[in-house]
Specification:
There is one protein chain. This protein is an all-alpha fold and 139 residues long. It has 6 helices and 2 strands. A two-stranded antiparallel sheet has the order 1-2. The radius of gyration is 26 Å and the shape is elongated. Helix content is 63%, strand content 3%. The chain folds into 2 domains: 74 residues, Multidrug-efflux Transporter Regulator, Chain: A, Domain 2 (Orthogonal Bundle), CATH 1.10.1660; 63 residues. Helix 3 packs across helix 4. Pfam families: MerR, MerR-DNA-bind. InterPro entries: DNA-bd_dom_put_sf, MerR-type_HTH_dom, MerR_fam, Tscrpt_reg_MerR_DNA-bd.
Amino acid sequence: MQIGELAARGGVTAKTVRYYESIGLMTAPERRANGYREYGEGALERLRFIRDSQAAGLSLSEAGEILRMKDEGESTCEHSRAMVDRHLRDIDAQIASLLAAKAELTALSRRAEALDPANCTDPHRCQVLALDLAVSGKV
């Protein structure tokens, strides 16, 4: 199959396929006499693996690492599992950070509801965001 068909069946663009080739994720295919690339089903499976890896949150580097291990005949299950577990921990940390940010913003929003806009006279500060006033209890 030619690059356009490979890309369409793999759910990416031809430019993406060329990029994956340029960084070594996809091997350069054989070329026909007319210069067109000729891809087999193996290339499609590899392309789908890369796409699915990214959808699962892995980086191209991580997908490439798994592909390299596969190419060398190594087992990848434990390695992949460790990667997935690391990504889960990262997501949990991001969620905790977002929840903390939400709590802070919620507190600011509640505080803003109680403020009188007429008291906002400082041309360099916003009383809603003046955290030092909230901490000191002056507001």
